[in-house]
Each structure stands twice: as C-alpha cells, then as structure tokens.
Amino acid sequence: AALPEGVLANLLKPENKAALVKVLTYHVVAAKVLSAELSNKEQITTVEGQNVTAFVTRFLGKTNISIQDGQNGRAQVIKADVEASNGVVHIINEVLLPPTPNVPKNIVALAASVPELSTLVTAVKAAGLVDTLESAGPFTVFAPTNEA
C-alpha cells in the first residue's frame, strides 16, 4: 500500500521504533525463496511473524507475481530474483503492511478519524491536551461536533 501522508515521518520518530521494525520485518522471510519456487496463493511467514500471500500467474512463458499484505493491499513484483551474497531480493512497487490488531483508538486518534470532530481536535491541540488524552485514562469525553 502507498503510505498515507505523514506515516513514514511518524514511523521514523525514535518513539515509534517498534512499529518501524514491525513494518520492515514484515518484508523479510527467513529463507532464500526464488520466484520459481513460489506457488499461487502460497502463505509465506515473515520474520515479523505474520503471513503474506503470494499470487503467481504463469502464462506464455511470462510470470507475474504479487504479494498481498495483512491489510489486503497488493504489491507487484517488478524485478524478481536479484541475487545478494546472503539471499535474494524481489523488488516490489508498494509497502507491505502487517494486519492491524483490533485495538481501539485512543481518544485523540478516534476524534481525528471523525471529520465532524475536526474543530474539537484543533482545540485539543491548541490547549496542549493531546498527551493527556492519548494517555491510558480512562476518560469519558462529550465531544461537540463542528456544528455545535
């Protein structure tokens, strides 16, 4: 998947190192797997611990390979079997993202995901309350809409 604006900058922050490691290791398999060894709909376990799925079509001597990630995004292999001294690289055209756990968003993230609460989010930022409302809580917020 193409990373939404700001995601890469966020992943590169020191406090998000674990999330960055998770995304990067989701691109690595602990074995040398050449394109000819891949089969259609094959589940491949990544170093991160979760699977990606290979989709392979072979027709008239041409092979097309795509890799589906945990969020149903697909990356096309644009150059396969680039040999390295310690393995092989398949160059892809998208970032693979591991499945996201069903963890509820914190209050700030939830409000930011609701367009009708954009004024509230702006106010929370201006008041310096982001860190408070992103902390463990628990909190109850009566959130006025932009029209309130």
Q: Looking at the chains present, what oligomeric state does this protein adopt? A: single chain
Inertia-based shape: elongated
Strand content: 25-35%
Spatial ordering of strands, largest sheet: 1-2-3-4-5
What is the rounded distance between the termini?
A: 36 Å
Order of helices and strands: HHEEEEEHHH
> Main sheet, how many strands, which sense, barrel?
5 strands, antiparallel
Give the fraction of residues assigned to helices. 10-25%
Derived structural class: alpha+beta
Note poorly predicted spans.
Answer: none
How many helices? The count is 5
In words, what does this structure look like?
This protein has a 5-stranded antiparallel beta sheet, with no helix packed on it. The chain is elongated. With 148 residues, it is of the alpha+beta class. It is built from 5 helices and 5 strands, in the order ααβββββααα.
Summarize the topology.
Blueprint: H1 7-11, H2 17-25, E1 42-45, E2 51-59, E3 62-68, E4 74-84, E5 87-92, H3 107-112, H4 118-126, H5 130-134
Antiparallel strand pairs: 1-2, 2-3, 3-4, 4-5
Q: What brief labels describe this structure?
A:
elongated, alpha+beta, five-stranded antiparallel beta sheet, 23% helix, 148 residues
How do you describe this structure in short?
The protein is built from five helices and five strands; from the N terminus they run H-H-E-E-E-E-E-H-H-H. It has 148 residues and is of the alpha+beta class.
